[in-house]
Amino acid sequence: MGSYVQPIDETKGPKKGSTDLNPPQTSLVAGGVMVAAVLGIYLLFTQEISQTVLLVLGLLLGYTLFHARFGFTSAFRRVMSVGNGQALRAHMLMLAVAVTLFAPILATGYTFFGGEAAGYVSPVGVSLIVGAFMFGIGMQLGGGCASGTLYAIGGGRSVMFITLLFFIVGATIGAAHLPFWTEELPSFEPISLATSTGLGYFGAWAVSIAFFGFIAWITLRIEKKKNPPRMAPLPSTKGWKRLLRGSWPMLAAAVALAVLNALTLMTRGNPWGITSAFALWGSKTAAVFGVDVASWGYWSGANAEALQASIFADSTTVLNFGVILGAFLASAAGGLFRFNKITGKNAAASVIGGLLMGYGARLAFGCNIGAYFGGIASFSLHGYIWGILALAGTFLALFLRPMFGLSVPKPKDTFC
């Protein structure tokens, strides 16, 4: 039987067959806690209190992602290559819990700190189709999706720093080009299953739950037919120590991520997002070098204030920093933080993947978190279309990955 130890796209994992825990890297844990504390205190005294709350939520998101190795890139690749739907079923559970929590929040508009809660409901058009397809290719070449890039950096995966850099470049170029894609090319108005169809939030919730159940059933049917390899267990422990060290069950992480996303919605008035911060970071950097980014259509209207303010006033930026720090703490607690070797081929794949993801995310109104997770949880049709097109991009990327020395799962392989 062939053996396939999956290169963890979103972070490093244990060696195949190992269920032993490494000793915790206590000095790194202490350093991470200090950085998180200093950042939290800084936000508490310079920004609104909601920013400090979002930092804590980001820490918990990053910790959860790392501990469960909760992936979007690997989930799509496994189901498209060999028919393993374990991770995709975890997605369906995550989305089911999310819509259950989002429905009353969006229906009432209630938030913790004032303002009204609003989901991610975006237009459906050429921009979405092209962008999501590009993102699907990019995440398979870049070694991780948007959330995966952040928590892989937190885990010390060296090549993902290249992915992030070019993710930011791609997102910035996408921001500059976005008016062409949205204003010059065909597009429909945003469609909400809850408010645009007459179903209401309860009806949209019922339809969503039925759809998630159907997708889960389909993956089980595919597995029965193809008998794909199962995912090997990750290092773990028992009792309360498992909260801090060792792997978490993927289904438990799915519930945790849905709850944390709902808390994010109630804290800042919008669901969890990632890539808008990349466009902000890149645009601010371009402005330093004399580029007139303020003249771009993307930075007009409601976005103009963000361009002029501190990045710490941007809630998505704070969440991103929290995810990285949370993953760092989780990896160090598990004794897994270490940098690894970068080769020419995987560096090239990261450059191309990062550019495709950054540009695609701007065109598609979000990434695997803002569009797929947040969009579907918000009952937006664009979230479902994003998922379909990203799967199509993943299928094409299966033929591209070997060109960069990246492996593709085979039917007789053993997953890690």
From TrEMBL:
Its keywords, alphabetically, are: Cell inner membrane, Cell membrane, Membrane, Transmembrane, Transmembrane helix, Transport
Q: Which domain of life is it from?
A: Bacteria
- Quote the cellular component terms of the Gene Ontology held in the record: plasma membrane
Q: How does it sit in the membrane?
A: Multi-pass membrane protein
Region span, Disordered: 1-23
Give a yes or no for keyword Cell inner membrane in this entry.
yes
Q: Which residues cross the membrane?
A: 26-45, 51-72, 93-113, 125-152, 159-181, 201-222, 243-263, 318-339, 351-373, 379-400
Q: What is its main location?
A: membrane
Intracellular or extracellular location(s): Cell inner membrane
Family listed? Belongs to the TsuA/YedE (TC 9.B.102) family.
This protein is called Uncharacterized protein
- Organism of origin is Rossellomorea aquimaris
